Amino acid sequence: MTFTGWVVGGIASIAIEKYLLQTLSPGLLQQQPSWDRWVKSISSVVFAMIFAADQAIVLRRYLSAWWLWILATSVGWLVANNVSTAWIEYISSIANSLNKTLSFEDVIFFGGLSTISYVLSGIWLGFLQWLVLRRKTAGAWWWNFLPSFSYLCISLFVWLLSFLQDLIPEVSRAQILYLSGQALTAIILGVIPAIGFCRLKIYSRRITARQ
């Protein structure tokens, strides 16, 4: 369901963004650049809601207040995304302010900082989801860091995927790498939390049995 939410949410958000941008006149967008940001924000909200709702379809069997999961996941995803984007842009601006061609060591350094910012931003998503899960589970404190672990795995797999780019025909390389990266992201975001949910369910059953 997470994979489905990622795909459907992505298609819906892109379609809405294109529709809104085509509806607004180019002159208005040039005069009011904030409209472009608003359009992107609306598309991001649509994606987050669909992404969270697909997960809630399964989790409503275990969480009576399943709408809280939709709210927590949507807000957490948006906050994590905005925080990581802000930090990555800030790190990029520092690199550009050096006014020099970056050495290999510089690229590794600034790239590493950007990756760390992306990984740590997952704590926002984990924390808000934990606020919902702690009401129905026992020992769920580690869930705060589970999305960050998912983000770390995504970064590692996408990095490994980049080593295969020379094996892909140049004509379709960009598209194949993009789709492969999106597929890997969706799978990891589904598999790792699913394992986490299973662990929570088993642990909570053991606690209940002891009591």
Automatic annotation (TrEMBL):
Record keywords, A-Z: Membrane, Transmembrane, Transmembrane helix
Membrane-crossing residue ranges in chain numbering: 38-59, 66-88, 108-133, 145-164, 176-200
Protein name per the record: Uncharacterized protein
Organism whose genome encodes this protein: Fischerella muscicola CCMEE 5323
